[in-house]
Write a structure and sequence with these properties.
mainly beta, 11-stranded antiparallel β-sheet, 5-stranded antiparallel β-sheet, 3 helices, 45% strand, globular, disordered C terminus
Length: 255
Amino acid sequence: MRKSFAWLGLLALAAAAYADPAITHVSFKSGKAYYHAVVSDLTSDRVTVQAVLSPKLRSIHDLTAEDQPEAAITGTFFNPRDGYPVGDVLVDGKLMAEGKRGSVLAIDWAGKCHIFDSDFQQQVDWLDYRYALRGTVRLIRDGKVAPDPKSQKFRDPRIWGRARRTAAGITSSGKLVMIATKNSVTLSELGRAMRTLDVVDAVNLDGGGSTCLYYRGKVLISPQRRLSNLLVVQESTPLEGYPGWMKVSGWVRKR
């Protein structure tokens, strides 16, 4: 009888958790453009955010095949010939690429997301962070849409023109928003679209032909080239991590 009650309690826990998903997808129109966004509740202990870097250019399907994240978006800018990022990429506490430019989206060891600016050609102390993408353009700062890539030493005019775009930001309640559009928009238009989702700090990620957004096994916006790095979100099942239980083929059983 006790085992039956234990199972009922665990099933109720799972049902309650899935009744309020921690990672959701929304699509909407802002101005003349259509957007897809994935919103992740970082206050949930089921959600983790990571940076992924491949040593070579790969398709989005190859990049997501092994870990099968719930969501993924294009990462920082990279050399289209060899895939090497133009900014720093930190993976599991190790600096895997170095570029010393642009704003930063970083995940600390507690799983909290941070967005901050960095000085051009200056090193960042990564001790407090587990994952990070540098080389991004600041879009929103303290709730104000004010992109200024030239002041961040970006020189490619395609960055401040109209293009397909991706971005990531944090809401006032601490949620991570990953957004993408295949319409050609300016940085300011992208920032205003993010503000409709209560984003208060945000960075522009790589876009153009690299624009990509993946959600629960489906590529919502397909890139026009192979990629080298991503920002991904994982979600564990409600019972994963429960003492004495393990996941087996979509079910759980006692160890």
